């Protein structure tokens, strides 16, 4: 059984994950259950952590399926990347969803 890890990140970390081909999930947020509400709450918690890590720059959350929080996920296990679409977004703005194939474009 796998869990969905919501990994708070920055664009620099996303670039490193992409280059290394893996995402460490230590410190990731796990949803309390599989409900949509719990998953959304986990995404928001990870987004808040990303905001703090980035000094207020664009938030980045990498979502990966792993056997447990703390495992290292291969990029093929990344389900999606959620990011702010512009600098200066408000912390309560929705994050945009991107497929893993779009990471090079995001890092552009």
Can you walk through the features of this model?
With 108 residues, the chain is α+β, with helices and mostly antiparallel strands. It has one domain. The chain contains three helices and seven strands, in the order E-H-E-E-H-E-E-E-E-H. The chain has a five-stranded antiparallel beta sheet with strand order 3-1-4-6-7. It has a two-stranded antiparallel sheet with strand order 2-5. The longest helix is centred in the middle third of the chain and has 18 residues. The protein is globular and about 40 Å long. It starts with a strand and ends with a helix. The mean pLDDT is 94.
Features of the shown structure:
108 residues; two-stranded antiparallel sheet; 3 helices; DUF6912
Strand arrangement in the largest pleated sheet: 3-1-4-6-7
Number of strand segments: 7
Secondary-structure content class = alpha+beta
Low-confidence stretches: none
Share of residues in strands: 25-35%
Determine the number of helices (DSSP H or I, runs of at least 4 residues). 3
- How would a crystallographer describe the biggest sheet? 5 strands, antiparallel
Pfam families: DUF6912
InterPro entries: DUF6912 (IPR054206)
In short:
By secondary structure, this protein is α+β, with helices and mostly antiparallel strands. Helices cover 31% and strands 29% of the residues. It has one domain (3-107).
């Amino acid at each position: 059984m796998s869990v969905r890890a919501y990994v708070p990140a920055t664009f620099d970390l996303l670039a490193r994950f992409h280059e290394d081909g893996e995402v460490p999930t230590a410190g990731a947020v796990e949803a309390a259950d599989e409900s949509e509400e719990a998953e959304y709450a986990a995404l928001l918690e990870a987004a808040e952590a990303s905001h703090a890590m980035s000094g207020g720059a664009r938030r980045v959350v990498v979502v990966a399926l792993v056997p447990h929080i703390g495992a290292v996920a291969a990029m093929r296990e990344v389900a999606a990347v959620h990011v702010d679409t512009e600098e200066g977004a408000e912390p309560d703005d929705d994050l945009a969803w991107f497929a893993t194939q779009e990471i090079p474009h995001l890092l552009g």
